[in-house]
Amino acid sequence: MSCSLRKWAKQTAPDPETGTDAPLFSPRDQEWADHFRWEGAVVVPLTPTGRATAAALAMNRPLALAIRLEEAERGRHPPPASDEE
Predict the structure, then answer these.
(1) Which residues pair with 21 in a beta bridge?
(2) pLDDT tens-place string over residues 29-53
(3) Are strands 36-39 and 21-23 parallel, antiparallel or unpaired?
(4) Which of 24, 50, 83, 84 has the most CB atoms less than 10 A away?
């Protein structure tokens, strides 16, 4: 299942660190680098919004990691700053 299908119409999700609902990341209104960073193929959440989003969208599920690793082999990962997830 893709991230878009996982997000559906959700606007908040529990922060796995605190259990408190946090707003999900909005790429239209927020900067990716404020909430996430790359560690190889892994998305590392930096904020409650980042943690809630990464967990709710399963951003580091095995298939996503495999795709990112393959993209890295082709020189297409990580994406340029303007195209990040």
Answers:
(1) 14
(2) 999 999 999 999 999 999 999 999 9
(3) unpaired
(4) 50
